[in-house]
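Tutorial, part two.
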Amino acid sequence: MRKGRLLIWVIFILICVAESSPAGLTIEHKGTPNATLLYNGKPMLKVGPLPEVAVFAVGLGSTSFDVEQWLDWMTRNDMGYGRVYPESSYDPWQALDSDKRLFPFDVIRWEKGHPVVDLTRFNRAYWDNFAEVLRQCARRGIVLHIQLYQRVFFQLNSKTDSWKQNYFHPDNNVNGYPVVRLPNGRKTNNGYWMWNAMVTHPDWRKVHKAWVEHILDAIGTNGNALIDLMNEANFKNNFMTKEWIEYTLDIIEQWEERTGNDILVGMDFDHWYKSKDPGIEYVLAHPRMELIICEGSEGHVNRDLTAGSRKPISEDLAILYRQRYRKPIVSANSPSYWPDERLEDGTRPELSNNRVRQYQWESLMLKVQGVGVYAKTYPMDFSAPALKRYARETRRLMDFFANLVNYESLEISPEIIADAPVKYRRALRSPKEVVIYLHTDGFVKTVEAGKQLKLRNLPMKSGPVSIGLVHPHTGKSSGSRAVIRNGRLSIELPEFYEDVAIHIVFVKAD
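Running the prediction step on this input gives:
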């Protein structure tokens, strides 16, 4: 009887613990400068490349792109994040003749080799597959950064004619909905008039609402997705409107109220910032958006991490915006194409992976907690040198993260580094531990042994600490002991190539 009662109590306690543990994505220290994302109750750091369109554009088991094989490779290498979006354009990035090719709307006919769809008839096979991909990701602990729309699909200029392949373009659907003029006499050859139409015209308004609801229904109770309203939008150049944002947030909130689910929402601030669009304040401070979403290199003051020909930023936005808006941060992509092993101009092939490695480590240090590594090609040969190296270096990062005592309590504190032999210096601290990441100014550089790292104002009381040191490039690690005195600590560094990470933990006296 006693054993039986004991077993009942154990089961009861386990059920209570399970029910009290938050599922999915939640925020710890909400409304503070240290707001931190949790996934299933644990502090989150997730990185990885996911096929932006292909992951939904072909059915599971497709010979053109095997989604499950890719997800399994991610899982084996501790990757768990990806920026994705449903395709509102049938081209580019996934061939129309792909095996098990799927389209978000029912195809009524084909004209000149492309589909013509009915915007009122959503293709059940596409959205069932969308939901199944989410379930498969949830099973593997992979979080999806879902953008409702890829703004580039509505663009028409010398670089891209994606708008001509967009399902919403009048030539690609049978619905005959009108082109809605922009307010205040503004004109555009792009499809950017759609944002206004989706709010002001009843037919376009219904299509937009149904589109968003199909995405939300696919997410359902999985708990492994966050919503990014749109990729690279702004008021100045892309004709985004506050009315569109508010209407879209209304759709999401109504769905949450109806289903009892909760989804974290934000909006990529990249083009707001770069165009000096005053709307950036409206987006980042919006009370109904719980996330700050950066893109590329906006989270890091590091000219070596600037994407392509973009100008280096001059403000440490990850620190500045976190303090100002008190929200957790994720990133839609990384500053370097992957895994092409080259920079965008085709030079310095060894630097592409180096840049991605550094970006991921700096993201750890700045609490940019989701990193969608940027890629347009997705080779399935996992033995390729570029993929093997990226996987290896990502596992080192995640092993280091797993050994942290309490990531949600760590605060961004670069000021504790009094001196270091490199330009780029990152620090996190709490009363229990300190984390340091150092990187040279540039790449393919070695720091000679014997240089000093000097720390000050440490939150730990005077006494012994353990020091774990990891070389992110090689994986070599070492450990030592030292003593903090009056909040200060000096560490003699070994020789290191490009970067080094250090974990300092207070040791209790025996």
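DSSP finds 13 helices and 24 strands in the chain. In part three we will examine how such features are distributed along the chain.
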